[in-house]
Amino acid sequence: MSTIEEAPPSGRTEAPKGERIADWADGRLGIYNFGFLARKVFPEHWSFMFGEIALYSFIILILTGTWLTLFFEPSMAETVYHGSYVPLQGIPMSKAYASTIDISFEVRGGLFIRQLHHWSALTMIGALCLHTLRHFLTGSFRKPREVNWLIGFVILVLVILEGFVGYSLPDDLLSGTGLRIAEGVTLAIPVVGTYATMFLFGGEYPGQDVVPRFYSLHILLIPGIMLALTVIHLILVFYHKHTQFRGPGRTENNVVGQPLMPHYTAKAGGFFFLVSGVLALTAGIAQINPVWTYGPYRSDQISQGSQPDWYMGFLEGALRAFPAWEWTVPGGYTVNFGVLIPAVILPTLMMLVLALWPFLEAWVTGDKDEHHLLDRPRDHPTRTAFGCAFVALYLVLLFGGANDILAERFHLSLNQITYAVRIGFFLVPALTYVITKRICLGLQLRDRDKLLHGRETGKIRRLPHGEFVEVHEPLDRGQEYALLSREVRETAPAPAAEHDGVPNPRARKEILRHRLSRWLNSGQIPHPTPQEMQQARAHLDHAPDGHASPNGHLDTARPGALQPGREPDQELH
Ligand code: HEM
Ligand code: HEM
């Protein structure tokens, strides 16, 4: 006979407290509808962390910047310094400069927060440049992410502007020198330059308005737009889902990785504290922008060895290296090419290429497909070489911006450095292009070699007849798949000169496209054929001392077919 035992009454008449709070919130905010976000999948790769570093530095900038607003006085009204920094005692200066000195020496923790703000700014811009480079080199900007690339690009321009504007706020001799250059550059813009300068400075340079104006831009307008764009940027990353590198089980239709809750949240949270910790440590021990040593700004003075923050250095270099060309237009107007070309036209062209690259590439390749799998930089040698040449050009100009420091430290002639920068401007990017392309081709050949002959293990064996051989191990199935799944791109066909006896009206445009597409797709080492793979495998299997291949035939026609089951989670597009 069986008895039914009833559980003793728990005494609980309502749901647990946590559930009640959740129900309460759901009734008002509909939070249960967002449950799917918890299962959002994030693939893992070290290069994805640059965006996170930028985000965390931005958060620290907002926090430290808000703190600085409590003590900084954005005014160019004159005051006389009577604070604790003796060398500046009794010196007239603007209130902006005096308040920056006070933040540094009078306010408790002020110097630390100022330095944390400045180091976070430098780190954020550095991380964003690497973030941009990683997207460029892996082709993540292709359809459907072109708009997100453009949004990112606008953020990049804004953050550089924000950095420059913030750097100008303390009104010290160094930042004033930077502002003086900005004035010169604005003046060099034909037709509107003079009006734009008057508008910017509220009259003749330096005037009384520039610091309060820059202050509004720095704490309100620019960070406000940046924040809004960053939110849209991240929503779009969620919406498009993340890209991923090729590998077993990874297709154009899924994302394989760790879910947002709890893995990614825990990891990202830890990483936030790590980034903050490193920034705080740097701010605590590494001095940056010691404005008290420069003194207040005076338009008749300039300090020796003036250098902007690193991200503005390329403009400085371009200005220093460009010849002082001028052209006086009939009527008595002077066009200052020596400033206009290096400081306005050159950076605008560089920025345009960067902003429009996804659209140029899509037009040249005629590719209308969505891409969620990333290219390895070596597999797209022309794009990679172009990106590296771009970085090389930037670095040459950055180097040129430090010509006085280099001349002084290394006892070189300033003029020789300037000539080296002029030659390097053309030569270094061209050499970088050629060398990078060769490296990419070499790496592709190595991949092919690995597929056909296995991985070199570094183990040397002696055969019975005395010969020494290196043991080659076949790649495991996952590695083999990742290498073989590389996309083979096709070149746009050469256009016909005429159709049915009628000249093709779009022939010139199509020829241009065909040539560009040939250039862009050049340097693709073909995959080994199935016969080559079979022969190589047979050879490896029977090699005197190689390991037997564990692999059977690799089915590359079904990319999703290989599911090693190592990854914990996946999401479909
Ligand atoms: C991406 C965002 C930002 C960047 C790149 C940035 C950059 C900078 C830089 C380089 C300085 C000069 C620091 C120095 O004196 O050594 C500065 C100063 C300043 N920033 Fe920011 N900033 C950002 C956001 C903000 C925000 C959001 C606020 C306020 C809400 C803010 C408030 C200030 C103030 C008050 C100063 C003047 C104080 C001083 O120079 O010590 N900043 N900023
Ligand atoms: C405040 C500035 C920015 C923040 C906080 C930010 C953050 C992020 C994060 C966290 C991701 C996902 C992780 C990753 O793929 O690395 C991402 C993706 C992306 N970012 Fe940014 N980003 C910023 C600026 C930029 C810039 C300057 C560009 C390029 C010009 C850019 C282009 C992209 C693209 C195309 C993706 C999608 C790629 C993918 O899904 O794999 N972002 N961003």
TrEMBL record:
Reactions the enzyme catalyzes: a quinol + 2 Fe(III)-[cytochrome c](out) = a quinone + 2 Fe(II)-[cytochrome c](out) + 2 H(+)(out)
TM ranges: 53-72, 149-169, 181-202, 214-239, 268-288, 337-360, 381-399, 419-436
Keywords: Cell membrane, Electron transport, Heme, Iron, Membrane, Metal-binding, Respiratory chain, Translocase, Transmembrane, Transmembrane helix, Transport
Class of enzymatic activity (EC top level): translocase
Cellular localization per UniProt: Cell membrane
Record-annotated Cytochrome b/b6 N-terminal region profile domain positions: 21-246
Region of interest: Disordered: 521-573
Record bears the keyword 4Fe-4S: no
Alphabetical list of InterPro entries matching this protein: Cyt_b/b6_N, Cytb/b6-like_sf, Di-haem_cyt_TM
Cofactor (UniProt): heme
One Pfam family hit: Cytochrom_B_N_2
Topology of this chain in the membrane: Multi-pass membrane protein
EC number: 7.1.1.8
Biological process terms in GO annotation: respiratory electron transport chain
A GO CC annotation given for this chain: plasma membrane
Main location: membrane
A molecular-function term among this protein's GO annotations: quinol-cytochrome-c reductase activity
Protein name: Cytochrome bc1 complex cytochrome b subunit
